[in-house]
Amino acid sequence: MLTSLISALLAAILTIVGLLHALWGFGVTFPAANEQQLARMVVGKRGITKMPSMTACLFVAFSLFGFAFLALVLGRLVPMPISKWLVAAAGAGAALIFMGRGVLGVLPAFERALPEQPFLSLNRRFYSPLIFLIGAGFALLTLALPYWGWRLGLLG
User: Fold this and answer.
1) Torsion over CA of 21, 22, 24 and 28, rounded to 10 degrees?
2) What are the residue ranges of helices labelled H in 26-145?
3) Is 156 part of a structural domain of the chain?
4) Closest by alpha carbon to 41, among 116, 110, 102, 129?
5) Distance CA 96, CA 91 (A)
6) What does the alpha-carbon distance between residue 88 and residue 143 come to, in Å, rounded to a whole number?
């Protein structure tokens, strides 16, 4: 029950963020007034004036859609006829990627490399904590897989 909720919530968040990246790839500047302001909000690279290419934005969008699908598979909301080990490995990898980015995003070295405002304050307040929580969600879903629960003595 809880895994279904976590799975659906992760999939929804990742899908929404993926849709934003896709829109940005097609030139939509929401929630900013223009491209330069958007680039400063979501990329944060020193002196940035333009958003990354359409290809880069769409790559990120489709990657996020893939992670959303993985969340549904891990929560067993979408059955997949593939190895449980492969699903577990993908879940563990997703947890490491997202939790790693969440932690790295608040380290002083990361902040010195990307000093542009308002990205820096948005990253500290919203992006890094959300990304870390997404990673924690993937970790919980991976650990809740029936095989792991049985191995760890959590399931009968």
Assistant:
1) -140
2) 35-42, 54-74, 84-104, 108-113, 119-122, 128-143
3) no
4) 116
5) 9
6) 8
User: Is the model's pLDDT at 16 over the cut of 90?
Assistant: yes
Lowest mean pLDDT among 101-110, 122-131, 143-152: 143-152
Give pLDDT, residue 120. Answer: 92
Place of tokens 């929804």: 12
Residue 97: both structure tokens together: 């990627």
Domain residues for the domain of 97 are 2-151
Q: How many domains does the chain have?
A: 1
- Residue 153: pLDDT over 50: no
Please tell me whether residue 28 adopts helix, strand or coil conformation.
coil
Phi and psi, residue 47, nearest 5°: 75, 15
